[in-house]
UniProtKB/TrEMBL annotation:
SUPFAM superfamilies named in the record: Bet v1-like
Taxonomy of the source species: Eukaryota, Viridiplantae, Streptophyta, Embryophyta, Tracheophyta
Superkingdom classification of source: Eukaryota
Protein name: Bet v I/Major latex protein domain-containing protein
Species whose genome carries this gene: Ilex paraguariensis (yerba mate)
PANTHER family: MLP-LIKE PROTEIN 423
Xref: Pfam families: Bet_v_1 (PF00407)
UniProt domain Bet v I/Major latex protein: residue ranges: 3-98
């Protein structure tokens, strides 16, 4: 079963399985590695890095994605990047509820 599925109304869902590759507690960083699924049909590697920083009573998260295309004809993984942005906004909204 895929860990997540990023899709849009006009396109087929792209599935992916990922694992936590590393946790750096000192630098408050987690690296996720996609290793299987539709996403990997077009990419040699696909990783996401989350770095957390304390700010006041809360935290900030910097989320970056590092991927290597199989060739130059492969498009930017826009729907997966949009999916990640939506999930992070939903988490933020949930955490800020009174």
């Amino acid at each position: 079963k895929p860990l997540f599925s990023c899709d849009s109304q006009d396109e087929k869902a792209a599935t992916a399985k990922e694992t936590i590759e590393a946790i750096d507690e000192e630098n408050k960083t987690i690296i996720f590695n996609i290793f299987e699924g539709d996403v990997m049909k077009d990419y040699k590697s696909f990783k996401s890095i989350a770095q957390f920083t304390s700010k006041g009573d809360g935290s900030l998260v910097k989320w970056s994605t590092d991927y290597e295309k199989l060739n130059e004809d492969v498009a930017t993984p826009r729907k997966c990047l949009d999916f990640a942005a939506t999930v992070l906004k939903d988490i933020d909204a949930h955490l800020l509820k009174p």
